Protein backbone atom coordinates (compact mmCIF):
# COMPACT_ATOMS: atom_id res chain seq x y z
CA UNK A 1 0.00 0.00 0.00
CA UNK A 2 1.36 3.45 -0.91
CA UNK A 3 2.14 5.94 1.79
CA UNK A 4 -0.59 8.57 2.22
CA UNK A 5 0.94 12.04 2.36
CA UNK A 6 -0.94 15.26 3.07
CA UNK A 7 0.81 18.52 2.12
CA UNK A 8 -0.07 21.82 3.76
CA UNK A 9 1.01 24.66 1.46
CA UNK A 10 1.23 22.53 -1.67
CA UNK A 11 1.04 25.47 -4.08
CA UNK A 12 3.73 27.62 -2.44
CA UNK A 13 7.38 27.98 -3.42
CA UNK A 14 8.61 25.07 -1.29
CA UNK A 15 5.39 23.07 -1.33
CA UNK A 16 5.27 22.96 -5.12
CA UNK A 17 8.79 21.52 -5.24
CA UNK A 18 7.79 18.88 -2.69
CA UNK A 19 4.71 18.00 -4.76
CA UNK A 20 6.92 17.73 -7.86
CA UNK A 21 9.41 15.46 -6.08
CA UNK A 22 6.78 13.13 -4.65
CA UNK A 23 4.88 12.99 -7.95
CA UNK A 24 8.06 12.32 -9.92
CA UNK A 25 8.96 9.47 -7.59
CA UNK A 26 5.52 7.86 -7.57
CA UNK A 27 4.43 5.39 -4.93
CA UNK A 28 2.60 7.99 -2.85
CA UNK A 29 -1.06 8.81 -2.43
CA UNK A 30 -0.96 12.60 -2.34
CA UNK A 31 -3.42 15.15 -0.98
CA UNK A 32 -3.23 18.91 -0.52
CA UNK A 33 -4.74 20.64 2.51
CA UNK A 34 -6.26 23.96 1.40
CA UNK A 35 -8.30 26.74 2.96
CA UNK A 36 -11.91 27.17 1.77
CA UNK A 37 -11.00 30.56 0.23
CA UNK A 38 -8.24 28.92 -1.83
CA UNK A 39 -10.40 26.17 -3.29
CA UNK A 40 -11.13 27.95 -6.58
CA UNK A 41 -7.65 29.35 -7.15
CA UNK A 42 -5.97 28.26 -10.40
CA UNK A 43 -2.98 26.81 -8.52
CA UNK A 44 -5.33 24.61 -6.49
CA UNK A 45 -7.32 23.55 -9.54
CA UNK A 46 -4.05 22.59 -11.26
CA UNK A 47 -3.39 19.93 -8.61
CA UNK A 48 -6.41 17.82 -9.51
CA UNK A 49 -5.34 16.66 -13.01
CA UNK A 50 -2.10 15.46 -11.42
CA UNK A 51 -4.03 13.00 -9.27
CA UNK A 52 -3.65 15.04 -6.08
CA UNK A 53 -6.71 15.06 -3.86
CA UNK A 54 -7.76 18.48 -2.57
CA UNK A 55 -8.79 18.40 1.10
CA UNK A 56 -10.56 21.47 2.45
CA UNK A 57 -9.80 22.52 6.02
CA UNK A 58 -10.32 25.81 7.83
CA UNK A 59 -7.55 25.77 10.44
CA UNK A 60 -8.58 29.16 11.78
CA UNK A 61 -12.20 28.28 12.52
CA UNK A 62 -12.52 24.50 12.84
CA UNK A 63 -11.88 22.76 16.15
CA UNK A 64 -8.91 20.49 16.81
CA UNK A 65 -11.31 17.54 16.92
CA UNK A 66 -12.79 18.44 13.53
CA UNK A 67 -9.34 18.87 11.99
CA UNK A 68 -8.18 15.57 13.49
CA UNK A 69 -11.09 13.82 11.75
CA UNK A 70 -9.91 15.31 8.43
CA UNK A 71 -6.31 14.16 9.05
CA UNK A 72 -7.21 10.64 10.13
CA UNK A 73 -5.78 7.95 7.86
CA UNK A 74 -2.78 9.90 6.55
CA UNK A 75 0.69 8.55 7.28
CA UNK A 76 2.74 11.74 6.86
CA UNK A 77 1.90 15.43 6.98
CA UNK A 78 4.29 17.91 5.36
CA UNK A 79 3.83 21.59 6.12
CA UNK A 80 5.33 24.18 3.77
CA UNK A 81 3.38 27.31 4.67
CA UNK A 82 4.27 30.91 3.95
CA UNK A 83 6.79 32.76 6.10
CA UNK A 84 3.97 34.83 7.58
CA UNK A 85 1.87 31.79 8.55
CA UNK A 86 4.18 29.72 10.74
CA UNK A 87 2.03 29.79 13.87
CA UNK A 88 -0.99 28.54 11.93
CA UNK A 89 0.72 25.15 12.24
CA UNK A 90 0.12 24.96 16.02
CA UNK A 91 -3.46 23.79 15.69
CA UNK A 92 -2.44 21.45 12.88
CA UNK A 93 0.13 19.85 15.19
CA UNK A 94 -2.49 19.41 17.93
CA UNK A 95 -4.83 17.74 15.46
CA UNK A 96 -2.07 15.57 13.95
CA UNK A 97 -1.23 14.24 17.41
CA UNK A 98 -4.88 13.48 18.07
CA UNK A 99 -5.20 11.74 14.70
CA UNK A 100 -2.15 9.52 15.31
CA UNK A 101 -0.08 10.79 12.36
CA UNK A 102 3.08 8.69 11.92
CA UNK A 103 5.36 11.55 10.85
CA UNK A 104 4.91 15.32 10.91
CA UNK A 105 7.31 17.46 8.89
CA UNK A 106 6.89 21.08 10.02
CA UNK A 107 7.77 24.07 7.89
CA UNK A 108 11.53 24.28 8.41
CA UNK A 109 13.18 24.56 4.98
CA UNK A 110 15.50 27.38 5.95
CA UNK A 111 19.18 27.96 6.70
CA UNK A 112 20.82 26.27 9.68
CA UNK A 113 20.62 28.34 12.84
CA UNK A 114 20.20 27.70 16.57
CA UNK A 115 17.05 28.73 18.45
CA UNK A 116 17.00 31.41 21.08
CA UNK A 117 16.85 34.78 19.36
CA UNK A 118 19.47 34.55 16.62
CA UNK A 119 16.62 34.97 14.17
CA UNK A 120 14.04 36.49 16.46
CA UNK A 121 11.16 36.50 14.00
CA UNK A 122 10.73 33.51 11.70
CA UNK A 123 13.08 31.05 13.42
CA UNK A 124 11.50 31.65 16.81
CA UNK A 125 8.08 31.08 15.26
CA UNK A 126 9.26 27.82 13.73
CA UNK A 127 10.71 26.71 17.08
CA UNK A 128 7.35 27.30 18.78
CA UNK A 129 5.89 24.77 16.35
CA UNK A 130 8.71 22.31 17.08
CA UNK A 131 8.09 22.67 20.81
CA UNK A 132 4.40 21.86 20.31
CA UNK A 133 5.41 18.73 18.39
CA UNK A 134 7.68 17.62 21.24
CA UNK A 135 4.95 18.39 23.79
CA UNK A 136 2.73 15.82 22.10
CA UNK A 137 5.53 13.27 21.50
CA UNK A 138 4.45 13.47 17.85
CA UNK A 139 6.85 11.65 15.48
CA UNK A 140 8.63 14.26 13.36
CA UNK A 141 11.39 15.17 10.98
CA UNK A 142 12.71 18.75 10.82
CA UNK A 143 14.24 19.58 7.45
CA UNK A 144 16.43 22.60 6.74
CA UNK A 145 17.90 23.41 3.37
CA UNK A 146 20.73 25.89 3.60
CA UNK A 147 20.49 28.79 1.14
CA UNK A 148 18.71 28.30 -2.18
CA UNK A 149 20.77 28.89 -5.33
CA UNK A 150 17.83 30.91 -6.62
CA UNK A 151 18.36 33.67 -4.03
CA UNK A 152 22.15 33.48 -3.67
CA UNK A 153 23.46 34.70 -7.02
CA UNK A 154 24.65 38.20 -7.93
CA UNK A 155 23.41 40.59 -10.61
CA UNK A 156 25.67 41.20 -13.63
CA UNK A 157 26.59 44.54 -15.26
CA UNK A 158 24.82 43.50 -18.46
CA UNK A 159 21.55 42.92 -16.60
CA UNK A 160 21.38 39.47 -18.19
CA UNK A 161 20.19 37.71 -15.05
CA UNK A 162 18.00 40.47 -13.65
CA UNK A 163 14.86 38.67 -14.85
CA UNK A 164 15.35 36.21 -11.97
CA UNK A 165 17.14 38.46 -9.48
CA UNK A 166 15.47 39.04 -6.10
CA UNK A 167 18.08 41.22 -4.43
CA UNK A 168 18.37 44.99 -4.34
CA UNK A 169 22.09 45.16 -5.00
CA UNK A 170 25.25 43.10 -4.86
CA UNK A 171 26.74 43.14 -1.37
CA UNK A 172 29.60 41.06 -0.06
CA UNK A 173 29.67 40.85 3.72
CA UNK A 174 32.96 41.04 5.58
CA UNK A 175 35.78 39.44 3.60
CA UNK A 176 33.36 37.25 1.60
CA UNK A 177 35.03 34.04 2.75
CA UNK A 178 32.37 32.58 5.07
CA UNK A 179 31.19 29.19 3.72
CA UNK A 180 27.47 28.53 3.44
CA UNK A 181 25.38 25.41 2.79
CA UNK A 182 23.50 25.76 -0.50
CA UNK A 183 21.00 23.82 -2.62
CA UNK A 184 18.88 24.17 -5.75
CA UNK A 185 15.33 24.49 -4.42
CA UNK A 186 14.09 22.06 -7.07
CA UNK A 187 16.10 19.32 -5.34
CA UNK A 188 14.21 19.84 -2.07
CA UNK A 189 11.26 17.72 -3.21
CA UNK A 190 13.48 14.94 -4.55
CA UNK A 191 15.29 14.70 -1.22
CA UNK A 192 12.09 14.95 0.83
CA UNK A 193 10.95 11.86 -1.08
CA UNK A 194 13.99 10.00 0.23
CA UNK A 195 13.50 11.30 3.76
CA UNK A 196 9.86 10.28 4.20
CA UNK A 197 10.76 6.73 3.17
CA UNK A 198 13.73 6.50 5.54
CA UNK A 199 13.33 5.36 9.16
CA UNK A 200 16.77 6.79 9.95
CA UNK A 201 15.34 10.30 9.63
CA UNK A 202 12.46 9.84 12.08
CA UNK A 203 12.69 12.19 15.08
CA UNK A 204 15.79 13.87 13.59
CA UNK A 205 16.90 17.18 12.13
CA UNK A 206 18.09 16.91 8.53
CA UNK A 207 19.97 19.42 6.39
CA UNK A 208 19.83 19.25 2.60
CA UNK A 209 22.72 20.65 0.65
CA UNK A 210 24.55 20.35 -2.65
CA UNK A 211 27.40 22.86 -2.38
CA UNK A 212 29.27 24.74 0.31
CA UNK A 213 30.33 28.08 -1.15
CA UNK A 214 31.56 31.46 0.01
CA UNK A 215 30.33 34.71 -1.53
CA UNK A 216 33.71 35.11 -3.20
CA UNK A 217 33.39 31.65 -4.76
CA UNK A 218 29.87 32.50 -5.98
CA UNK A 219 31.29 35.63 -7.54
CA UNK A 220 34.11 33.73 -9.22
CA UNK A 221 31.71 31.15 -10.70
CA UNK A 222 29.45 33.86 -12.09
CA UNK A 223 32.34 35.81 -13.59
CA UNK A 224 33.82 32.67 -15.15
CA UNK A 225 30.53 31.52 -16.65
CA UNK A 226 29.39 34.96 -17.87
CA UNK A 227 32.69 36.50 -18.94
CA UNK A 228 31.65 39.66 -17.09
CA UNK A 229 33.37 41.43 -14.21
CA UNK A 230 30.91 41.55 -11.37
CA UNK A 231 30.35 44.84 -9.58
CA UNK A 232 29.86 44.49 -5.83
CA UNK A 233 29.90 46.66 -2.76
CA UNK A 234 31.20 45.65 0.64
CA UNK A 235 29.55 45.81 4.05
CA UNK A 236 31.37 45.22 7.29
CA UNK A 237 29.99 42.97 9.98
CA UNK A 238 29.38 46.03 12.16
CA UNK A 239 27.31 47.62 9.38
CA UNK A 240 25.30 44.44 8.97
CA UNK A 241 24.64 44.22 12.70
CA UNK A 242 23.50 47.85 12.82
CA UNK A 243 21.17 47.24 9.88
CA UNK A 244 19.67 44.27 11.70
CA UNK A 245 19.10 46.20 14.94
CA UNK A 246 17.43 49.05 13.03
CA UNK A 247 15.19 46.71 11.03
CA UNK A 248 14.22 44.74 14.14
CA UNK A 249 13.24 47.91 15.98
CA UNK A 250 11.09 49.10 13.08
CA UNK A 251 9.35 45.73 12.84
CA UNK A 252 8.69 45.55 16.59
CA UNK A 253 7.15 49.02 16.49
CA UNK A 254 4.68 47.89 13.81
CA UNK A 255 4.69 44.06 13.53
CA UNK A 256 1.57 43.96 11.36
CA UNK A 257 3.28 45.76 8.46
CA UNK A 258 4.71 43.14 6.04
CA UNK A 259 6.98 45.79 4.50
CA UNK A 260 8.82 45.97 7.84
CA UNK A 261 8.88 42.22 8.45
CA UNK A 262 10.86 41.32 5.34
CA UNK A 263 13.82 43.71 5.91
CA UNK A 264 14.13 42.42 9.49
CA UNK A 265 14.00 38.79 8.30
CA UNK A 266 16.59 39.45 5.61
CA UNK A 267 18.99 41.19 7.99
CA UNK A 268 18.68 38.41 10.57
CA UNK A 269 19.41 35.76 7.95
CA UNK A 270 22.50 37.65 6.81
CA UNK A 271 23.84 38.08 10.34
CA UNK A 272 23.25 34.40 11.06
CA UNK A 273 24.99 33.26 7.88
CA UNK A 274 27.81 35.75 7.42
CA UNK A 275 28.60 37.08 10.90
CA UNK A 276 27.79 34.13 13.18
CA UNK A 277 28.61 31.51 10.49
CA UNK A 278 25.63 29.38 11.49
CA UNK A 279 24.86 27.93 8.04
CA UNK A 280 27.96 25.74 7.79
CA UNK A 281 28.53 21.96 7.79
CA UNK A 282 30.42 22.12 11.09
CA UNK A 283 27.64 24.02 12.86
CA UNK A 284 25.00 21.69 11.41
CA UNK A 285 26.90 18.73 12.88
CA UNK A 286 27.23 20.58 16.21
CA UNK A 287 23.45 21.13 16.31
CA UNK A 288 22.82 17.45 15.61
CA UNK A 289 21.69 17.58 11.98
CA UNK A 290 21.98 14.56 9.71
CA UNK A 291 23.36 15.47 6.28
CA UNK A 292 21.71 14.23 3.08
CA UNK A 293 25.10 14.11 1.32
CA UNK A 294 26.04 11.37 3.79
CA UNK A 295 22.61 9.72 4.02
CA UNK A 296 22.16 9.46 0.24
CA UNK A 297 25.59 9.38 -1.43
CA UNK A 298 24.02 8.12 -4.68
CA UNK A 299 21.84 11.25 -5.03
CA UNK A 300 23.31 13.70 -7.54
CA UNK A 301 22.05 17.21 -6.74
CA UNK A 302 22.23 20.08 -9.17
CA UNK A 303 25.32 22.22 -8.62
CA UNK A 304 25.52 25.98 -8.37
CA UNK A 305 27.75 26.02 -11.43
CA UNK A 306 25.10 24.20 -13.48
CA UNK A 307 22.41 26.50 -12.10
CA UNK A 308 24.36 29.56 -13.26
CA UNK A 309 24.48 28.11 -16.77
CA UNK A 310 20.67 27.81 -16.70
CA UNK A 311 20.43 31.33 -15.33
CA UNK A 312 22.57 32.76 -18.14
CA UNK A 313 20.53 30.83 -20.70
CA UNK A 314 17.34 32.52 -19.47
CA UNK A 315 15.83 29.35 -18.03
CA UNK A 316 15.73 30.27 -14.33
CA UNK A 317 12.63 31.42 -12.49
CA UNK A 318 12.22 34.44 -10.24
CA UNK A 319 10.73 33.40 -6.91
CA UNK A 320 7.83 34.98 -5.04
CA UNK A 321 7.20 37.30 -7.97
CA UNK A 322 3.59 38.16 -7.17
CA UNK A 323 4.30 38.84 -3.50
CA UNK A 324 7.39 40.95 -4.08
CA UNK A 325 5.72 42.98 -6.82
CA UNK A 326 2.79 43.64 -4.48
CA UNK A 327 5.04 44.84 -1.65
CA UNK A 328 7.08 47.05 -3.96
CA UNK A 329 3.91 48.66 -5.34
CA UNK A 330 2.69 49.39 -1.81
CA UNK A 331 6.05 50.92 -0.94
CA UNK A 332 5.92 53.40 -3.86
UniProtKB/TrEMBL annotation:
One of its GO terms (molecular function) is oxidoreductase activity, acting on the aldehyde or oxo group of donors, NAD or NADP as acceptor. InterPro entries: NAD(P)-bd_dom_sf, NmrA-like, NmrA/Isoflavone_reductase-like, PCBER-like, Semialdehyde_DH_NAD-bd. It holds the Pfam family NmrA. Coiled coil: none annotated. Keywords: NADP, Oxidoreductase. One of its GO terms (biological process) is alpha-amino acid biosynthetic process. The keyword Oxidoreductase applies. Residues 4-120 form the Semialdehyde dehydrogenase NAD-binding domain. This is Semialdehyde dehydrogenase NAD-binding domain-containing protein. It comes from Massariosphaeria phaeospora.
